[in-house]
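STRUCTURE:
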């Protein structure tokens, strides 16, 4: 497994990371034993970066990772944790809190659930409009000084916020959606990160399975699968998006690879400072994604891919309108 350094903070991670969210119900039911086996397989394959959030399954995801890491060397995994989202007893989202006191509270619970003495990357999952980013980052910086956190990351932040955060403490990476269907970061956000020496961990590289080459229309009807409310999966949009997938499939077939592999490889080739996060929750999907590492794209391949899926060709926004309105990163794009 090749490695890269996230930003200028000296943190070395694998060239691909494993996003663990789907193992805790966001896409419908998942199998606990298969999830753990998938984490084990990822670590055995050389993946070191495990990404989670304390609100994934209301702590379920962190407990799952703790179980998977039991008996292994702590240094085998670079654990990235997002915090800030508030949940309710029926699984809904009820707000956001990134006050310094909340940061202290959230990290205490995460350390306990994960069973570790430090978190490698700690990041607010969104910008709290009621709290200056300087206050949130300052609180995490105190955790770095105390040894509870090693590096500070951001998630879904726009250029101005990224600059303000970096002025308080070095930022190792920005986690943000980036794929053939979601290229909004290219205008301002990615150049800002590169100017400041901040890496990018890209989630949604397969657009929540939409451009995996495997997605079926009935999948979004599974109870608990938030894609049932995602604009790109709705009637009138999904047909257009699946037509893009078929065009991409033709390009992949010419190279003898799968749609997922060529979509992941496209993200990876955008720069050594970009680490795709694979959302696999099964070993077979993980194996397929790992095959993207063997795919070398040349200029002709990239041109063919972008003809198949032109920039801004996606039908529908990446989140529903109320959620888009709360994304600091989207305010920068529009």
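SEQUENCE:
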């Amino acid at each position: 497994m090749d490695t890269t350094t996230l930003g200028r903070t000296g943190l070395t991670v694998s060239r691909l990371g494993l996003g663990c969210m789907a193992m805790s119900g966001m896409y419908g039911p998942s199998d606990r034993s298969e999830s753990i086996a998938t984490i084990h397989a990822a670590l055995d394959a050389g993946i070191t970066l495990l990404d989670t959030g304390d609100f994934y399954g209301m702590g379920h995801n962190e407990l799952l990772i703790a179980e998977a890491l039991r008996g292994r060397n702590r240094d085998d995994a670079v654990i990235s944790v997002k915090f800030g989202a508030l949940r309710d007893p029926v699984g809904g989202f009820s707000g956001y809190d990134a006050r310094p006191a909340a940061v202290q509270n959230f990290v205490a619970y995460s350390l306990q659930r994960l069973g570790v003495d430090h978190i490698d990357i700690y990041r607010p999952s969104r910008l709290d409009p009621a709290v200056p980013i300087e206050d949130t980052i300052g609180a995490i910086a105190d955790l770095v000084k105390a040894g509870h956190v090693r590096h500070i990351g951001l998630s879904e932040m726009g250029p101005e916020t990224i600059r303000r955060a970096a002025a308080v403490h070095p930022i190792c990476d920005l986690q943000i959606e980036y794929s053939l269907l979601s290229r909004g970061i290219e205008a301002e956000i990615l150049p800002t990160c590169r100017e400041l020496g901040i890496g990018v961990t890209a989630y949604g590289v397969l657009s929540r399975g939409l451009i995996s080459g495997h997605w079926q229309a009935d999948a979004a009807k599974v109870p608990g699968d938030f894609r049932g409310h995602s604009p790109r999966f709705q009637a009138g949009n999904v047909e257009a998006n699946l037509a893009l997938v078929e065009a991409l499939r033709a390009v992949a077939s010419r190279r003898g690879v799968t749609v997922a592999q060529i979509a992941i490889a496209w993200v990876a080739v955008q720069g050594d400072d970009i680490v795709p996060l694979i959302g696999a929750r099964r070993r077979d999907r993980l194996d397929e994604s790992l095959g993207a590492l063997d795919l070398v794209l040349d200029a002709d391949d990239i041109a063919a891919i972008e003809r198949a899926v032109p920039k801004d060709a996606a039908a529908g926004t990446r989140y529903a309108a109320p959620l888009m309105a709360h994304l600091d990163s989207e305010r920068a794009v529009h």
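REMARK: The first strand starts at residue 3 and ends at 6.
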